[in-house]
Amino acid sequence: MFQRLTTLKESPSQTAGPYVHIGATPNWVEITGVWKEDLGLVIVGPDTRGERIVVKGRIFDGSGNPIKDALVEIWQADAAGLYNSPEETRGQADPNFVGWGRQPTDAATGEYRFETIKPGRVPYRDGRPMAPHITFWIVARGINIGLHTRMYFGDEETANAECPILARVEHKFRVPTLIASRSEENGMPTYTFDIHLQGEKETVFFDI
Amino acid sequence: MSDQGSYYQRDRSWHPAALTPQYKTSVLRSPQYPLLSLDNTISEMTGPRFGHEKIGPLDNDLIRNFAKTGDPIGQRIIVYGRVLDENARPVPGTLVEFWQANAGGRYRHKKETYLAAIDPNFGGCGRTITDEEGRYWFRTIKPGAYPWPNGVNDWRPAHIHFSLFGHAFAQRLITQMYFEGDPMIWQCPIVSTISDKAAIDQLTAVLDRNATLPMDALAYKFDIVLRGRRSTMFENRMEGN
After folding, report:
1. Can you name the residues that pair with A182 across neighbouring β-strands?
2. What is residue B25's three-state secondary structure?
3. By the CB < 8 Å criterion, does B221 face chain A?
4. Rounded Cα distance, B173 and A87, in Å
5. Contacts 24+ apart (CB under 8 A), B212-216
6. Would residue B33 show up in a list of annotated catalytic residues for this protein?
7. What is the structure's pLDDT at B162?
8. pLDDT in tens, A37-96
9. Which residues in chain A touch residue B68, judged by CB atoms under 8 angstroms apart?
10. Please, are residues B148 and B154 in contact by the beta-carbon 8 Å criterion?
């Protein structure tokens, strides 16, 4: 007999289902009194360093309909480009910024919305700087395994042009699916990042 | 963590595919382009960590954490297990979230219209943080099977949803736990999005009579495996840290 590899297999994914909010944002679906506040709804506090921004958008299915039962999570560096994680070894991230957020898409409009800060640049594996980005993870009914993508910033053209990740997108016409457009909303810089799960405008998703 | 490298690549033939037409909602919600493969960067090898200060004393007790007038009705059970990585190392200090229907298969959710009754003493959500050995446990009511509008007469097996963070965003996982011996596992279009029977078995909790509390609650054991990390031996490239 050959020797055997002894690694375990990862637990297989299953869809989060239509009622993911019961576990992820119970107060949002009126299961109140179990825990005080839903995790990840508020990302920034008065002492968080960096430029305040709004990130919002909708998630469309292959027919162009916005999905109203998705759960969106983001993970990002602080304004100096450091992650608030024990695995971060380059320095101490802003203690007033967790860097992780979670929002349901609106049951009526399908819009998700985060109030956060614009992240600094972080290095690629070889040390070259990646463009500022926010990592997205999307789960919903009908999605069997969570989808990873990244949001880049439309007003970071120079950084985007030299980002080693964006350079990996073979079909260049798909790069804009990762770039959010900037506008102003009530005096706040607002980035709109629509995600298309399928079809002509399909967003680039990553196997990370 | 400078001695540790990227997470092992996900085995996407072990996981369910995106497009699984027998689960109808997946048809319009599955990407058609291939995923773009990336070596992990620090953006994926880091992730949020949640402290015990976020967790209340009843957060892992679904029998008590929503109770208004008494205990919920149904089969009292304990669910316990370990969170490990593919190298069989424990994953300590990580948040585990779970949610489920009540004993009759009814979810407490505003979009849910199934005619089985809401239990006034059951919310259906819980969470806990694994201990230093990667162990977790919670107490709940065994959920009922549940009909859903997929096929004309499709029913979900009894199941509890699980959400895991691990130590890195690359390990983020949502899955479902099924119960040993449930004949409905093998007729479910969501279970069968997984093609390998061994992978389905990995999601099936086993009855553990040794952990049962006599005259109180049955126990089910459910271990969860997250992605493991490469060691960086023989590698001279930067790992982003």
Report:
1. A191
2. helix
3. no
4. 18
5. B212/B78, B213/B78, B216/B76
6. no
7. 98
8. 999 999 999 999 999 999 999 999 999 999 999 999 999 999 999 999 999 999 999 999
9. none
10. yes
Mean pLDDT of A182-188: 95
Of A19, A87, A133, the CB nearest to B46: A87
Walk along chain B (241 residues) in steps of 10 and give the mean pLDDT of each run: 78 98 98 96 96 91 97 98 97 98 96 94 98 98 97 98 98 98 97 98 98 97 97 56 38
- Total-model pTM: 0.96
Residue A13 in contact with residue B15, Cβ under 8 Å?
Answer: yes
Of residues B146, B167, B220, B229, which has the active-site annotation? B146
Nearest residue of chain B to residue A91 (CA atoms): B241
Q: How far is A23 from chain B (nearest CA, A)?
A: 5
Report d(CA A87, CA B94) in Å as an integer: 13
User: SS3 of B52, please?
Assistant: helix
Q: Got the DSSP string for B118-154?
A: PPTT---EEEEE--TTSEEEEEEEPPPPEEESSSTTE
Catalytic one of B108, B161, B172, B230: B161
The HSE-up count of residue B48 (CA atoms within 13 Å, CB side) is 24
Q: Residue A174 has which token pair?
A: 């798909």
Size of interface A-B (CB pairs under 8 A): 282
Q: Give the pair of three-digit tokens for residue B33.
A: 């382009």
Do A84 and B226 lie within an 8 Å CB cutoff?
A: no
Q: For this structure, is B227 an active site residue?
A: no
DSSP run (H or E) holding A22: helix A21-24
What does DSSP assign to residue B88?
S
